[in-house]
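Entry for the shared binder. Reason: the reviewer on the internal report wants the predicted structure included alongside the sequence.
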Amino acid sequence: MIHTTTIPRPILAALCCLIVAVPFLVTTFPPITDLPQQSAQIRLFVETIQDPAASPYTIQWLTPYSLSYAILGTCWALFGPKNAGRMAMLAIGMLWIVAIHLTARRKSRSPAAAVLASLFVFNHIMYWGFYSFAIGWPVFLLWFGLTTQRPERDFSAREAFMWVGAAILLYMSHVLWFAAGVTWLVVSSMVFRVPLRNMLYRFLYVTPIVLAILIWYPMLSGSAMATPPLWGTTPLERLSIAWLTDAARGGLPGRVEQLVLAAGGAWILLALWTNRATLGDTIDRELLLAAGVFFAFALLFPDKFMNTIRFGQRWVPAAVIMLVLGLPQPSVRPVLRQVAALALLLVFCAVTSSTWLLFERKDLSGLEAALAALPRSPRVLGLDTVRRSELIKGYPFLQMFAYSQVLNGGRLNFSFAQFPPCLVVFKKRFRSPWTPGLEWFPGRVQKSDLKYFDYALVNGSERIHEATGAEPLLTPVTRNGRWRLYRVSPSKQ
């Protein structure tokens, strides 16, 4: 079924991209938790390439998370270290929007629904800075397009090339997306009764990647990634409005995200009601099946596994997008659908932009001056004593100190190089001589820890800074803002 639209699809997609880009363009340090550490990986990559023998790091060229680092590296080259992270996340957001609109076009779904689905670019995956998982979604939509094509009667080289290429891209984005792709392949082949011969060919295409994962996965068994599954919530608890709102969105506190989810719910109810007589003919069963698979992941998977947090929650945005696209459009005038969806996206991105600007001005006050005061290649201890923000959910300050490595190189008390799947990792398993876990538990810091660092970058209240400035081992370098820099005095140690 092809819908007549007032605004052409390409223009709608371009407008969505422009609107979603605004929050990234008006801020320097967006509230994306892992952004500094992910950007620091490119700094370590550049330094390791320049002198691999002297570097304590090694590059894992075949890591299954390399696709996001290719985007980060490109943005590093184009926009510089300071802007690489936010521009890379913006690029991934653009890919989400383009992939959503292309999927809607290929499946002849409502263009306005694609606009509405674009709202879910701003979700907890983006706010936490799960770059590798985020880039996996548009790759999965490519995979979804391949798997929902009518299969060839017999093997063809062209089909084999496309399938193997898409499977490799899934692997290079995130191993979880590859697992999701294989699961979707199994489920969709069974539900839609793909002929056995074609099904065997399909699984033959992905077999080499499966074998690669079987070789790679045991390497993590003795690493910091090897953590048992943890369920903090039951499947029944995950059906609550609060959990679903946080899982589908998860960035801004207050009622703004609930209103967005309510608008999505109203769209769905209106679509169901106005198309109730022809619902069987107007839904897309493949999109709705994919939504069901992702919702099942969200309900059944643990909250944490293999040191991967929000293990179950991260599938909800994909499920919601597939649900919005799979249902018929409300039976109202096309121009009203498009204007309403665009207006909602515009208002939400305006609220997001103003919140990010306030976060940067208030919660990150003093950070830029502190970073500018650092010399080249410092050893920096990052201590976030504030932990939570009134403006952003989660822990937006957790990795903020890693900007010191992004801009100046050097060492940190914690680095993503300690994680085995990353692009750049330590050559030898890293064991810190100072108190571990200070990025999560800054109150555990000991005076003896300071001797391993040249500077301390502290996020704190005036009371915290008064106490920190009174410490004989620390000399204030900057004196204003929540974020302040202190020089460790070796003569006093």
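Summary line for the report: The longest strand covers residues 379-384.
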